[in-house]
Design brief:
There is one protein chain. Helix content is 22%, strand content 36%. The protein is built from two helices and nine strands, in the order H-E-E-E-E-E-H-E-E-E-E. The radius of gyration is 16 Å and the shape is globular. The strands form two sheets. Strands 3, 4, 5, 6, 7, 8 and 9 form a seven-stranded antiparallel sheet that branches. A two-stranded antiparallel sheet has the order 1-2. It has one domain. It starts with a helix and ends in a 5-residue tail after the last strand. Strand 8 and strand 9 form a beta hairpin.
Length: 163
């Protein structure tokens, strides 16, 4: 039992260190705008070059190039979005009654269609972490399956000078 707790603790340390390393190169957001996220759909015009086929089972929230499956419900109390004239960044939190492997597959497929590149992933049951990159920004998606529901967080952050 002590070994099992140690293994879980070590897994958490690995995830935290991996995320810290991934996020270390991030640029800082100059202006914070407090706002409650709302489930507004982005207009149908896709961002530069992205092809977005109609998918009635998913929608866009504050991040115009990260599609969220309808099985997940926005938790606005745990979501924070930062905006400047040139970027939108922050975290959106979601809950839903869906299998985590299904959500992982959804994000891998959907993010590729929105021109995100999968840079890595961690699978530390019950948690999955997906790391994506795109010109001038990065996205970290964590998915954790609980006994009664699945929790997902979508982090979008800018990078400095497109590095």
């Amino acid at each position: 039992m002590v070994l099992n707790k140690c293994a879980k603790g070590m897994g958490l340390v690995i995830v935290v260190l991996g995320l810290a390393g991934f996020l270390f190169g991030c640029g800082s957001v100059v202006q914070e705008q407090k706002k409650e996220s709302t489930a507004t759909q982005v207009p149908s015009a896709p961002p530069s070059g992205a092809k977005k086929p109609d998918r009635p089972d998913a929608r866009y929230y504050d991040f115009e190039d990260v599609k969220i499956p309808n099985e997940l419900t926005l938790d606005s109390k745990k979501s924070r979005v930062f905006q400047t004239p040139s970027l939108v960044a922050g975290v959106l939190a979601f809950d839903g009654y869906v299998e985590s492997n299904s959500i992982v597959s959804f994000f891998k497929d959907s993010m590729a269609k929105d021109n995100w590149q999968l840079k890595g992933s961690f699978k530390l049951p019950p948690k999955n972490v997906l790391l994506f990159e795109k010109k001038n920004k990065r996205c970290v998606i964590t998915i954790e399956e609980g006994m009664t529901n699945t929790r997902a967080e979508v982090w979008v952050i800018p990078t400095q000078n497109g590095a």
